Amino acid sequence: MAGNVPHARVVTCDLNQQESEAVKFFLTYMDDVQHILRNPRTIQEREEWGSFQAFISHLDCALSKSTVSQKVLLYHGISPDLAGTLLFMLDLNPLLREGTVSTEFIPHLILDPGYTLFTVDPGTMLRNLAGQKRETGVIFTYSGGPGDSAIVLGKESGEMLYPRDSAWVTTGYSSIRWGTTRLIIISLEKYRGGGGLI
Amino acid sequence: MTKDGRLSWNKPDVSLRRVHFLLTDLMKIRAERTLSEAADAIRNFRNEKK
């Protein structure tokens, strides 16, 4: 299925050797890198901290040289055990009528100290949900486009890496039926500090 | 961690913060369009499965 994923077009300027190595390193040690960014105290006092910061700096540079050249719809998931709590915390109605969209709610920021990884393949999220016996599933969607900094992590996987320490704002949600699962889709935008102030 | 796992936020990964602004009309329009496109993509995937 992943081979059928429409490839997101990303223009990447020439990366230097250190930046290319940083991308490769991230691909290999993604879980560890994300864990450290989200829990920096784990190595902050250790000798490796300097090397880790240098690596992150190269990866950030690589990201800054890569921009999305066309609109692409992206997806991100939430762990199943967190889905119900998240809907409550985001002030979303899990019983929203199926087939409807709501933008009448209090927006929230989702802050991730790590890099945000999206996929262009909704099937990746849906196959994950299919293996669970829960009544409600949650998927985030983001409409990426020109000007976004992102790196394609392998064309086959359809994964796109967005910058670390991003703030995402919830802008709406809808409910559809996916087999026996009620699926809540939440739309995100990058938070730029705008919006109409209350 | 599996591919599916790293594409999902777990509780310790993120923090949530209520924001003190209203969504602009433009943000709402973009949200409606994005959600509609996502729903279509999911329905299409469902059709592919059949």
Coarse morphology of chain A: globular
Helix count from the secondary structure assignment of chain A = 4
> What is the tally of helical segments of chain B?
2
Distance between the termini of chain B: 30 Å
Features:
heterodimer, A: 198 residues, alpha+beta, 7-stranded mixed sheet, two-stranded antiparallel sheet, 10 strands, 29% helix, 35% strand, B: 50 residues, 2 helices, flat
Q: What's the quick description here?
A:
The complex is a heterodimer of chains A (198) and B (50). In chain A, 38% of the residues are buried. In chain A, 29% of the residues lie in helices and 35% in strands.
Written overview of the protein:
The complex is a heterodimer of chains A (198) and B (50). Chain A has 198 residues and is of the alpha+beta class. Chain A is built from 4 helices and 10 strands; from the N terminus they run E-H-H-E-E-H-E-E-H-E-E-E-E-E. In chain A, strand 8 (159-178) and strand 9 (181-190) form a beta hairpin. In chain A, helix 1 (17-38) packs across helix 2. Chain B has 50 residues and is an alpha+beta fold. Chain B has 2 helices and 3 strands, in the order αβββα. The relative contact order of chain B is 0.07. Classes of the chains: A alpha+beta (198), B alpha+beta (50). Chains A and B meet through helix 1, strand 3, helix 3, strand 5 and helix 4 of A and helix 1, strand 1, strand 2, strand 3 and helix 2 of B.
Secondary-structure blueprint:
The complex is a heterodimer of chains A (about 200) and B (about 50).
Chain A: E1 10-12, H1 17-38, H2 48-64, E2 66-68, E3 72-78, H3 80-89, E4 101-102, E5 108-119, H4 122-130, E6 136-144, E7 151-152, E8 159-178, E9 181-190, E10 196-197
Parallel strand pairs in A: 6-9
Antiparallel strand pairs in A: 1-2, 3-6, 4-8, 5-8, 7-8, 8-9
Chain B: H1 3-6, E1 8-9, E2 15-18, E3 21-22, H2 25-49
